[in-house]
Design a protein that fits this description.
The chain is mainly beta and 186 residues long. It has a single domain, classed as Beta Barrel (Porin), CATH 2.40.160. The chain is built from one helix and eight strands, in the order H-E-E-E-E-E-E-E-E. Strands 1-2-3-4-5-6-7-8 form an eight-stranded antiparallel beta barrel. It is elongated, with a radius of gyration of 22 Å. InterPro entries: OMP/PagP_B-barrel. This is Outer membrane protein beta-barrel domain-containing protein.
Length: 186
């Protein structure tokens, strides 16, 4: 009887301790080029976190950011220079795995991290649509501020390096990002 009670208490303790390392995070995301305001994309993010120890945290994040632009162009098949207008909706949807290192423990927790994953870049207008998937790597710095024992305010600055192409023709671009949200720890 004592061994059954011991096994039950140990199992409950271990499952609670492991489960308390899990967390959810979500919030507002903004991407773009600070020099070109028309390229800014806004949206949100949602993810799961796992505290590996008191300094390291792993995460799985999905983000979705979108932009809508109205463009005017000259129609190429007319001689009178007829202007046409079109609306283009573009999207950036990265899915990444990452790891963060927290420099301090306590109410204010600055951190640095690195995420790696796939980003889907898409567009849609009245005439066509398309998307492609590329590798993305984004280093980041941020800060968590404890609101309560299980609720953290999260602020992160990051730089997405998006790698395009094939073995013979590879290029990359750099997109700046900001995430502002909440982490809930179980």
């Amino acid at each position: 009887m004592k061994s059954i009670l011991f096994i039950t208490i140990t199992t409950l303790f271990l499952s609670t301790a492991a489960f308390s390392q899990l967390g959810l995070k979500g919030g507002f995301a903004l991407y773009g080029n600070p020099k070109n305001a028309s390229f800014m994309h806004a949206g949100g993010y949602l993810g799961m976190t796992y505290d590996i120890n008191d300094r390291l945290r792993g995460e799985l994040i999905i983000e979705g950011v979108f932009n809508k632009q109205r463009i005017t162009y000259l129609e190429s098949n007319t001689l009178d220079g007829t202007k046409k207008e079109d609306v283009i909706i573009s999207s950036n949807i990265p899915v990444t795995l990452g790891i963060d290192y927290r420099f301090l423990k306590g109410k204010i927790q600055p951190y640095a991290g690195l995420n790696v994953g796939i980003i889907s870049l898409g567009y849609k207008n009245d005439h066509s649509r398309g998307s492609n998937q590329n590798l993305t790597i984004h280093p980041k710095i941020g800060m968590n501020v404890a609101i309560s024992e299980s609720l953290l305010f999260d602020f992160a600055l990051k730089s997405h390096f998006i790698i395009y192409g094939t073995n013979s023709n590879t290029s990359y671009s750099n997109v700046f990002g900001i995430n502002i949200g909440i982490n809930y720890l179980f």
